[in-house]
Design goal:
Layout: H1 2-10, H2 12-21, H3 23-43, H4 47-50, H5 56-89, H6 95-118, H7 124-128, H8 133-139, H9 151-177
Length: 178
């Protein structure tokens, strides 16, 4: 499944095409790639403790918030795609395809967070890695069965949702905790 992540980064259109043809990969991608990556990303918060930047309690809180944040992003994106996508994009994807899409697209953002947690200091290139999601969203247009006339609106709206939701959920959790 790591191959699926690497392929999504290097050749996104090929990754989406293979995913649409491979029923087995569709059934297990969330369980073998997305959810484990989500857990590793959350657990990577403890690396800041090893570097001496945080206490165990702060690292535990950060791990839990990371898990909740990305879980909420995947679920919110899935709900928005299921409810609004067919209406606004005239797309004909199923609920399971929308769920798989939501998780698979967020793997890049989770990977950026994981890398950011592993590195001992901030590196600017890692912070901009999620911007590549716009290209991944565009390349998924055939997998999501988006008609040609709706590709622009699909790409813009979906990219804004995917790039914006992590910040929205982070602010919501910050308001709850403080």
């Amino acid at each position: 499944m790591i191959r699926a992540l690497i392929q999504l980064i290097i050749t996104p259109q090929k990754a989406w095409n293979e995913l649409s043809r491979d029923i087995v990969r569709q059934q297990y991608l969330m369980w073998l790639l997305v959810y484990p990556l989500l857990i590793f990303t959350a657990l990577s918060s403890y690396i800041h403790h090893w570097y001496g930047y945080t206490t165990v309690a702060e690292a535990s809180q950060e791990a839990l918030l990371t898990l909740l944040q990305y879980g909420a992003c995947i679920m919110t994106t899935w709900i928005l795609l299921t409810k609004l996508g067919p209406k606004y994009f005239a797309a004909s994807y199923s609920n399971s395809e929308a769920h798989l899409y939501s998780g698979y697209v967020y793997t890049l953002t989770m990977l950026a967070t994981l890398i950011g947690n592993i590195l001992p200091s901030d590196f600017a290139f890692v912070q901009f890695l999620p911007m590549y999601s716009i290209w991944i969203v565009y390349q998924a247009r055939q997998y999501m069965k988006i008609p040609q006339e709706n590709i622009f609106s699909y790409t813009v709206i979906t990219s804004v949702v995917i790039l914006g939701l992590p910040f929205v959920w982070q602010k919501i959790f910050d308001l709850i905790l403080h």
